[in-house]
């Protein structure tokens, strides 16, 4: 029987099923890029995410999904998993914070969820719409992270890490990428009670500020 796991169940099962040395934080590594989507009237309407998961998570979460046994996983075979993952993202606050003029905005349920295999890693893309579009005046900021450090997000290289779709002319983006976790920081995260995630600092966060004229 094929096993289908939403993101929360899969991450929990992965954590419990791995050997002890692998249980250090983080448990799952994601390489991310995002596209901030603008409407024709110049307001921000949402964020389109693209996440590529590490090989260990990929191997676990895709078990039993090769329905035709041809050794390849197609987007159709991964669609049910994509839908379940998208549906569970609200439990994690979508790993996304978008602020307009310093005020956090509220998201609607994800749409257009898709998953595909990129060599040995599974990728997921989805549109995260805002419940109410916002004007970019006064700056818009976006943060992509898991404050518990169960999942660690790293942005792709270059300005494409946070891009703009249909933005008004003159909008510019300033990106601050999360600092890579070295062995010392991973050990600190592993030592229960040694440090709280909120005390680690913004250098381990992915943030961007979008300024429009």
From TrEMBL:
Cleaved signal peptide residues: 1-24
Keyword entries, A-Z: Signal
Pfam families: DUF1007
Ranges of residues in domain EF-hand: 65-88
Protein name: DUF1007 family protein
């Amino acid at each position: 029987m094929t096993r289908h796991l939403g993101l929360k169940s899969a991450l929990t099962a992965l954590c419990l099923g791995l050997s002890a040395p692998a249980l250090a934080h983080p448990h799952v590594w994601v390489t991310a890029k995002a596209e901030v989507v603008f409407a024709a009237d110049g307001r921000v309407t949402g964020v389109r995410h693209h996440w590529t998961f590490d090989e260990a998570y990929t191997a676990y979460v895709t078990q039993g999904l090769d329905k035709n046994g041809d050794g390849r996983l197609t987007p159709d075979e991964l669609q049910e998993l994509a839908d379940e993952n998208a549906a569970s993202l609200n439990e994690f606050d979508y790993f996304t914070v978008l602020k307009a003029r310093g005020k956090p905005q509220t998201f609607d349920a994800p749409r257009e969820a898709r998953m595909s295999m990129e060599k040995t890693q599974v990728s997921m893309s989805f549109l995260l719409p805002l419940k109410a579009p916002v004007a970019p005046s006064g700056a818009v900021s976006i943060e992509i992270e898991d404050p518990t450090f169960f999942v660690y997000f790293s942005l792709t290289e270059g300005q494409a890490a946070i891009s703009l779709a249909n933005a008004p002319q003159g909008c510019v983006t300033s990106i601050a990428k999360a600092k890579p976790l070295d062995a010392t920081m991973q050990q600190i995260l592993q030592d229960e009670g040694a440090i709280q995630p909120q005390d680690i600092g913004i250098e381990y966060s992915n943030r961007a500020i979008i300024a429009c004229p």
